[in-house]
Amino acid sequence: DNLLHQKENIQIVFENVTKDNKIITCEWYNTPLVDENEKIIGVASLMMDITERKKAEKAVRDSEERSKKLSNLTFEGIFIHDKGVCIDINESLLKLVGYSKEEIIGKNMIELSIPKKYHSMIKENMNRNNTKPYEIEARKKDGTLFPIEVESRITKYNDIRVTAIRDITERKKAEESNALLSRAIEQAADTIVITDAKGNIQYVNPAFEKSTGFTSEEVIGQNPRVFKSGQHDDAFYKEMWKTLVSGKQWHGEIINKKKDGTLFTENAVFSSISNSNGEIVNYIVAKNDISETKRLQELESRAERLEMAGIIAGQVAHDFNNLLAPIMAYPEFIREELPQDHPAQSYLDTIEQAATKISEINQDLLTMGRRGHYNQDVINLNHIILHTVKEMESRTNTIKCNVELSERLKKIKGGSAQIHRMLTNLLVNAQDAMQNNGIITIKTENYYADDTSIAFGRVPKGEYVKLTVTDNGCGIPDNIIQKILDPFFSTKSAGKKSGSGLGMSVVDSVIKDHNGYLDLYSKVGVGTSFYLYFPISKGETEKTDTEQSKIGTEKVLVVDDDDIQREVSTQLLKKLGYKVNTVTSGEQAVEFLKETPQDIIILDMIMSPGIDGTETYRQILETNPQQKAIIVSGFSESKRVVEAQKLGVGAFVKKPFTKSTIAAAVRTELDKETTVLTT
Asked: Which of 13, 6, 41 has its CA nearest to residue 29?
């Protein structure tokens, strides 16, 4: 009708049968032909075979349908949008956000389900046509926020985009869990080491670096045999690996070697890590250094043994004294009955010399056994030292004694005779170590300790009189230092002048009787220093424990980069009566002291980003060699603190400190006099 009556062009598609009976799809274009009177006189027709095009269109439709079905089957949320306005969305994303399809189609998905703080990021990614995944948060219909990963592709149709949304809530939980585990391992006080199946190190935590002195870079890829101490035989390690490769856990003590060669004992737990197939792929080791614990246990055990030895020695000495009396007295009686030229006179001399030596040994035994059962008076240690040194110098002219005594040394409470015997033993040991030729230095000072670790235990926090006896002799090997306090222990070999082996046992007994502490430092071929700490007297003669003795009016400079710490220090010191100035850095302190001298400075150890307390004090000494100072720090005592103290800094006080702590430290250092050298 359209063709014949309306004279319109028409296009029709229908199937045709070819001569060989094939069915093809044809598209017909028909145009009416008219004469000059507009009368249709015929039809012009054009036929095109569109069979292949129709097949292609059907394939596209089928593909789109399959894509839509697959989109709804995938676990990923997918939506098609034009600058955020949703054109289509799959079932997975609808379930994820909690909306129906009708609530989403035609709406701006970004404004509907994404918090505003992420809008600019999304817009920027669309403008840049970013195809890489990125993470943001999405909001469900009920308002719940959850983490998602977004990945988008632009299509060939204008700005139409296909965007995939993945819920990464579980992944984030796993990441947080792994991060927590990682932080726990990184911050653990115990050493953690992870190796591969062959035992090669893959990871060590910071505690390992602190404990061993090795950096992670130095040990990653290395075999743990680099820590072998030589203290365990091959059978020990074979048994360990036999346990591990069987999948079992190995637990025990192991002696390892630090980077500097120091041996240390660790309590270790070795475990294997297997993959999903049950194959061992890694080993993990958790260890903690128990060297100090074992040292203290050994000291406690040794102290018990020494206690028992002292009790037995004291009882034996008491009984032996009664037997010794006639041996000491009768030679004199016999000598009076004999002529001067009688041959027996020389025998009597030998008996007297031997009896005197026995008496000295017996006195040592009594000293070990008495353990404080004697009168103790308030005494000045300097007086006993001068007397003992005079005796020493009268016996030899090959030993020189340098005596450095504090003129304002505080009093101690003790027994003069016992301290004299103790000091005599120390000087005799020094004389023997130097083979009767060298220099012994004896020094006293007022000293404040802040719970310091020493060779034979710890020195508790408090005020002490410190006695140092130093020689330049042969030194004591490390492997016998812990034995020198044992009764009857001696390093003197046959052929040398023999000793009783009680000298250091007596020293230990006397210092313990005085509630003091013994420490030492020795280096073979260089010499030995013994340090003895006597608690200051709290008697009426020296009222050092009162607040009144800790106050002052001197000028104090506080050097600290922390505002609060400067304020706290200022208030504490002002309450004690001191005149206080403050600066915020070591550099400022150096310049300040050039113009404004101070009686004492309180130095913070670490002041970032400038110079630390040690370097500050070093520079101050260049213009004021007599400047007194103490170090304070929130960290433990370090090598830098030791360096500062070698330069002349007094006490090390750990932050946070109390008024009494800082008062004692400041007063002790202010009262310390310049060393006086006498010979």
From this structure: 13
pLDDT digits (tens, 9 = 90+) for 147-169: 999 998 887 666 788 889 999 98
Residue from 300, 299, 75 nearest 168 by CA: 75
Q: Are 535 and 463 in contact (CB under 8 A)?
A: yes
pLDDT band at residue 70, thresholds of 50, 70 and 90?
very low
Domains annotated for the chain, with CATH where assigned, are 10-49 (2.10.70), 57-172 (3.30.450.20), 188-289 (3.30.450.20), 294-367 (1.10.287.130), 372-535 (3.30.565.10), 547-673 (3.40.50.2300)
CB 433 within 8 A of CB 497: no
Q: Which two tokens stand for residue 633?
A: 């720090």
- Regarding pTM above 0.85, the answer is no
Q: How many whole angstroms separate alpha carbon 83 and alpha carbon 442?
A: 89
- Which H/E stretch holds residue 461? none
> How far apart (Å, rounded) are the C-alpha atoms in residues 239 and 245?
10
Name which of 308-322, 392-406, 476-490, 530-544 the model is least confident about.
308-322
Helical segments of 338-472, H only: 344-370, 381-395, 416-433
Q: Which helix (H) or strand (E) holds 84?
A: none
Burial class (CB within 10 angstroms; exposed 0-12, middle 13-18, buried 19+) of 186: exposed
SS3 65: helix
At 138 the pLDDT is 93
Radius of gyration of the chain (CA): 46
Q: Exposure string (b/e) for 351-384, b if CB count within 10 Å is 16 or more? A: bbeebeebbebbbbbbbbbbeeeeebeebbbbeb
Segment 192-217, tens digit of pLDDT:
999 998 889 999 999 898 889 999 89
**Cβ-contact 586, 610 below 8 angstroms:** yes
Q: What would the pLDDT profile of 16-69 be if each residue is shown by its tens digit?
A: 888 888 888 888 877 878 778 878 778 777 888 888 888 777 766 665 665 555
Q: How confident is the model at residue 316 (pLDDT cuts 50, 70, 90)?
A: low
